[in-house]
Amino acid sequence: MTSEQIVGLASLVAKDLGMRDVDETTLLDAIQRTPPMPTILSDSHNQLWVDRDYVAYSALDDSTVQYVYIAKKHAMEELRDLRNDGLGAIDQVLRQDIMRQLRRAVKADGPFYLRGTYRRRMEQASLLAI
């Protein structure tokens, strides 16, 4: 996905989570920076991570992470790191959930995984080429 599409997606996710409006210009600058800088947006309930290679969120009172978008290359790197104990002593249920999401991304057609509901919404809004 392009940087602009990633920012559009992050805005959709933030809105769905009830977060404040995303400063799209600042977010776009962070994504396009070399090396790219992950941006963490948070409010009193949620945390949203936005990077050139992924968009993910988590409720602050829940340890699970939900990937909305992840580049296949990044998913493969993350899986390798997890297999090499990259998260240390995290809960095994959390580890398995993250690995399940990463494996789904690796198996996706094309260079990235985008959760189906967001794929459809972005296509309908003409934010993603069909």
Account of the protein in words:
- The structure is a single chain.
- The protein is of the alpha+beta class and 130 residues long.
- Helix content is 46%, strand content 19%.
- The chain contains 5 helices and 5 strands, in the order H-H-E-E-E-E-H-H-E-H.
- The chain has a 5-stranded antiparallel beta sheet with strand order 1-2-3-4-5, sandwiched between helices.
- A hairpin with a 3-residue loop joins strand 1 and strand 2.
- Helix 1 packs across helix 2 and helix 3 packs antiparallel against helix 4.
- The longest helix has 16 residues.
- The protein starts with a helix and ends in a 6-residue tail after the last helix.
- The mean pLDDT is 87.
Summarize the structure.
The protein is an alpha+beta fold and 130 residues long. It is built from 5 helices and 5 strands, in the order H-H-E-E-E-E-H-H-E-H. Helix 1 (3-16) packs across helix 2 (24-32).
Topology:
Elements: H1 3-16, H2 24-32, E1 39-42, E2 46-51, E3 54-59, E4 66-71, H3 72-83, H4 92-107, E5 112-114, H5 116-124
Antiparallel strand pairs: 1-2, 2-3, 3-4, 4-5
Helix content: 40-55%
Task: Report the portion of residues in β strands.
Answer: 15-25%
- How large is the count of helical segments? 5
What Rg is obtained from the alpha carbons, in whole angstroms?
Answer: 14 Å
Please identify the structural class as seen in this structure: alpha+beta
Tell the overall outline. globular
Mean pLDDT across the residues is: 87
- Poorly predicted parts: none
Please write the string of helix (H) and strand (E) elements: HHEEEEHHEH
